Amino acid sequence: ALAPMTHDLKIEQAPKLTAAELVHYEERGFVLRQDVFDSRECAVFRSAAQRVESKMLALADGAEHSMRYTDYRLDGNRFVDVEHVTVQFEHGANVRQLRVVEPVNDVEPVFDHLIDDARLCEPMKQLVPSDRLGLWTAKLNFKHSRVGSGFGWHQDAPYWIHDSDHVDRLPNVMVMFDDAARSNGCFRVIDGSHKAGCLPGCSDGRQLAGFYTHPDAFDEDAQVLIECPAGSVVFFDPHIVHGSGVNASGLPRRAMIITYQPSGFATLKSGTIRNIGE
Asked: What pTM was computed for the model?
C-alpha cells in the first residue's frame, strides 16, 4: 500500500492574507510569506521527502508486484505510474534520482497532514475562494543538487482544464523545505501573466510541447525569482506562467506544491474526494 508512517507536525492557527497581500496576489499573481514553518518543521519535511524517494524508487523497480504499474518515457524521460501515483525520474540516461512524485500526500502521512495546516488553508479559503476546501493535487519536487533539472515556462490551467470545470479556482501554494536561490534553481514567475488567462502552448514536436507556454505569449523580462529561506511559502495563481532553473549548486531545493479547490470535488489523480479538515 502507498502509506503509512507516523507524522510529527503541528498545526497552528494562522492569520488570513492581509488586504495588501490580496492586492499583490490579484495584481501580480503571487504572494510570498517567509518564516511560516520553523527549522524543526522543515527538518521533518526533509526527512519525509527522503522516505518518499526511497519508497517510490523501490516501487518503481517493481518491488511490489501486486500493484498496478506502468513504466514509460515522455520526451526521452522516464515516468512510472504506481497505482495512481506518478513518479518522474530526473532527466538523463539511467538516473536513479527522482524529480517529482504526485500525489505525494497518498505516499507519506506527514505531507497529508501538512495539507490541513491552517497556515496554508486559511489564506487559501480567500484565494479559492471558499469557506470549505478540498484538495486538487499535491506534488513533491526534489530538485537534487547538481542533477536537478529545470522546469520550462508553463501554466497549470491548460494542463488541468481537461479534468476540471473550475480551473480558475485551483490556486497553488509552494512550501520550501530548503533555502531557495538562483544557484539551486529557485521557483520563478512571470509577473502579472495570470491576467491573460490560458495562453497558447508550444508545437515543436516534443510529446509534452503543448504544456509549455509559447515564448511569444509572454515577456520573459518580467520574471521574478522567488529567492527565500526554508519555511517560506508562495501562493500563486493557476494561470501564472512559472518555472524554475537547474540546480547547479551542491544544495538541494526540495519543495511541495499543494493545489486546493472547493470541497466536494474529486482529486486529479485518484478521483477520490479529499476534503480539508475531515
From this structure: 0.94
